[in-house]
Design goal:
Helix content: 25-40%
CATH architecture of the largest domain: Alpha-Beta Barrel
Bound molecules: ligand NGO
Number of strands: 21
CATH class of the largest domain: Alpha Beta
CATH topology of the largest domain: TIM Barrel
Number of helices: 14
Oligomer: single chain
């Protein structure tokens, strides 16, 4: 009953060692190996907030009834004789719980599985966990969620709440769309007007806001503790009205436009092939790269309808090279595949449909030819801002909407662009754009349960080559696991849409 579905989960239900584990008040967390202590502290914090239990952490072998976390080479599940970087094994039996992994990340994902196995109503005296054996590792290295903090701003506390919720699903990248026409959300010391002016408002005239560099670092560290890499995006040369309104010298006509709070796209562009713009790009990339321990920096590059093709290609090539000079791997939306001379290994993010239109397939493959890989975010199934049902008050429908839970679940990343298989797919990402999403509660309701579907596609086993996608994605079975997961969402106060495919737990009532 775990989401994403583990590679192997055997219930020990019928065997002689089937007695469940009982977490007694004297149970301890026993740690061994580098990094096990930090994972144990997170487990303890989760048991404290979920169940009101705070076991002590000890650096000694486990006794009967303890939870052991062991990190060492050879402890992960073995694939072709090698440890899988994020894999783990988990055993729950009467004598104890044991999580084994080769890395702290693997152990942390093992903890997330354990959390889902602990009954959501675990606050009582006796805490029992059913006996199971789990052997698990992800399909893709990159499992992402994106939050657009540019259209509507979300505070650090709100983003942390989302980080907690995505960690439970083993999502390991949080892409923050930090800049767009409606707002610039990361403070840049060398261009302070970007946030003073460009960060002052948002879509529909909503509250503005931005992250100071200290706040951003703290957010990145909070995510990193949970084995989540923050991927910052500075969208350019289009989607830049907030920057253009802040500095007239970045505009093709040298005149700063008014701040923009509408929902159109494609109307703005930086002045390309220009010394001031070049300095701007170097400065913002340098500062954001310095704030980012993770390997990626996203440059956007989508919908540059006001930039000529030649200017766009030259600009993206040069900007991507600046990212590489700053020691980061550049990511761009798939349109960036139009540019020649991109740095080797640059990553493309595909956001066309599950049946590619126009040149989208060819542009995605351009990244592979350049020695890079592709993140799959097909907008007709993976966009979290698309309405669930016709007439929904929040969301858009342009990407072949509505997008039901079934739509979000029954597709496969390796069956979209002919010639683009798992060897060149870095992973999947579900973006949440926020033109119409005004609060973190609304954001969660758009994300869950569909993000759980995309997280499972990113983690769980692929269908065999000749089998239909449905062979590994049975919506009815998924719905049963989601109903269990929702008990944890209810306990954590995570909002979700009660889509009709799932028999959701009864909403909590005041007694
Ligand atoms: C598009 C566009 C965004 C919109 C989003 C809305 C991309 C990559 N660019 O996706 O600016 O917010 O659709 O669904």
């Amino acid at each position: 009953m775990v989401v994403p579905r583990p590679v192997r989960l055997e219930s020990s239900g019928d065997s002689s060692d089937s007695a469940p584990f009982i977490l007694s008040p004297s149970a301890r967390i026993s740690v061994a190996g580098a990094g096990a202590d930090a994972v144990a502290r997170l487990l303890r914090a989760e048991l404290a907030s979920d169940c009101g239990r705070e076991p002590v952490i000890v650096d000694e072998p486990p006794a009967f009834g303890d939870i052991a976390i062991v990190i060492a080479p050879g402890e992960g599940p073995h694939e072709d004789g090698s440890d899988s970087a994020e894999g783990y094994t988990l055993e729950v039996a009467a004598e104890g719980v044991r999580i084994g992994a080769a890395t702290p990340a693997g152990a942390f994902w093992g903890v997330q599985t354990l959390r889902q196995l602990v009954p959501a109503s675990c606050g009582g005296d006796v805490l029992t966990i059913e006996a199971v054996r789990v052997h698990d590792h992800p399909r893709y290295a990159y499992r992402g969620a994106m939050l657009d903090v540019a259209r509507h701003f979300f505070t650090p506390a709100e983003v942390k709440r989302l980080i907690d919720a995505i960690a439970l699903l083993k999502v390991n990248h949080l892409h923050l769309h930090l800049t767009d026409d409606q707002g610039w959300r990361i403070h840049i010391e060398s261009w302070p007007e970007l946030t003073r002016v460009g960060g002052s408002t948002g879509s529909d005239g909503s509250r503005g806001g931005f992250y100071t560099q200290a706040e951003f670092r703290e957010l990145v560290a909070y995510a990193a503790e949970r084995h989540i890499t923050v991927v910052p995006e500075l969208d350019m040369p289009g989607h830049t009205n907030a920057a253009l309104a802040s500095y007239p010298e970045l505009n093709p006509d040298g005149v700063a436009p008014a701040l923009y709070t509408g929902a159109n796209v494609g109307f703005s562009t930086l002045q390309t092939a220009d010394a001031t713009t070049e300095r701007f790009v170097r400065d913002v990339v340098r500062e954001v790269a310095a704030l980012t321990p993770g390997p990626y920096l996203h440059l956007g590059g989508d919908e540059c309808l006001s930039t000529t093709e030649a200017d766009f290609a030259r600009f993206m090539r040069d900007a991507a090279r600046v990212v590489a000079e700053n020691g980061k791997i550049a990511i761009g939306w798939h349109e960036v595949g139009k540019a020649d001379g991109l740095p080797a290994g640059m990553v493309g993010q595909y956001w066309d449909f599950t049946t590619p239109r126009g040149r989208a397939d060819e542009l995605a493959l351009a990244f592979v030819r350049g020695g890079g890989s592709v993140i799959m975010s097909p907008s007709d199934v993976a966009y979290l801002d698309i309405v669930y049902e016709e007439g929904d008050p929040i969301g858009q429908d342009w990407a072949d909407g509505p997008t039901s839970l079934r739509d979000a679940y029954v597709w496969d990343p390796a069956r979209i662009v002919p010639g683009l298989g798992d060897a060149h797919i870095l992973g999947v990402e579900a973006p949440l754009w926020t033109e119409t999403v005004t609060s973190i509660e609304e954001a969660e309701e758009m994300a869950f349960p569909r993000l759980a579907a995309v997280a499972e596609i990113g983690w769980s086993a692929a269908p065999a080559d000749t089998d239909p996608v449905e062979s590994v994605r049975d919506v009815t079975e998924f719905a049963e696991r989601l109903a269990k997961l929702a008990e944890h969402w209810d306990a954590a106060g995570t909002q979700y849409r009660r889509v009709p495919e799932v028999s959701w737990p009864e909403p909590a009532r005041w007694s």
